[in-house]
Amino acid sequence: MHDPKKISFLYLSAFSTKGGIERFNQAFIYALNKNTEKVTLFSLYDKLEDLDVRYSNNANFSGFFKFRVLTAINILIKMLLSKADVLFVGHLNLASLALVIQAFRPTTRIILIGHGIDVWDQSSFIKKRFLDNVNQIWTVSSFTRDRMIEEYGLTPDKFRLFPNTLDPYIDFSTKKQQFSSLKDRYAIQEDTKVVLTVCRISSSEAYKGYDRVVKALSLLKTQNVCYLLAGKYDEIEKKRVLGIAKKYKVADKLIFTSFIPDEELTAHYKLADVFIMPSVNEGFGIVFLEAIACGVRVIAGNKDGSKDALANGELGLLINPLSEEEIANALDQVFSEQVVDESLSKRMLDKFGMEAFVERQKKYIEEG
Fold first, then answer.
1. In the chain, what are the domain boundaries?
2. Bridge partners, 228 (sequence order)
3. Listed range (24-33, 171-180, 198-207, 233-242) with the worst mean pLDDT
4. Prediction pTM value
């Protein structure tokens, strides 16, 4: 940047827990450190020992200590002393802290990052006031932007589209690996088609549509199929999904993997013949980018931010996520097509790769 600005990033967590927002925060921190040397990080939940120095050194980091209220007070004082030119707020739940900063430092430009359910259906007075007064809102998808405009009566010129990216430290580009160990682990036969969804299996995540995929399995022309549900699950939701599978007589096709560590993520994607997540309320969906980067065909819903991740159908199949028939037809279509578009991964990286992410952040900060 020609005129380096002091930039602060206030967020809930990036390294102490796992999830889509946490992955975004890691990438955002990485990009900030590429774009300026004057960045300060403030986390309500991460401790100093949680910080991964690959993404940022610990020289300008303040995080959780002792009690949450004390942490908030400590962060507030340090944010005021930092005299940042730009303050990024990583979650709407931090609105009260950001409003105090705005009151004491009105010259600080405050930018909210909006993902999805974190910025929808928020009714508190403080959050609404913050949304009215924040300088900019960077949303990961047009779906999130449009929903916020409709819900809160905000003007379109307050928004910038800032889509997700891939983790720079997970290698998705390696050639097709040997998966005998994974296939042995899950008892998958060599000629079995593998359908994959990567997400948390929880009642709060049911909008991702994995239960509708289970129902659609019974409609497939190709019956030599297994459905890999990769992600941490709670027992109540697992029991519900298994109940659906038994009702539709496809329980023998279902495999729950539990939590997948980063070092095994690429191998699980490359095990799959197709990745599907027919969600109805997804802000974006980093998992779509990860699957495409691994050379896997992708199917997503056409009613939420998944459209942005698939570039409105340029990078994968978009279907009505509420139709089990459309889900089944899309799966059969992918299974029947022998030719894979080798340019998909490159086109995705041109739009959503880390290089594009860093440049987009730099451009928006400089534009003001």
1. 7-165+353-367, 180-350
2. 196, 255
3. 171-180
4. 0.93
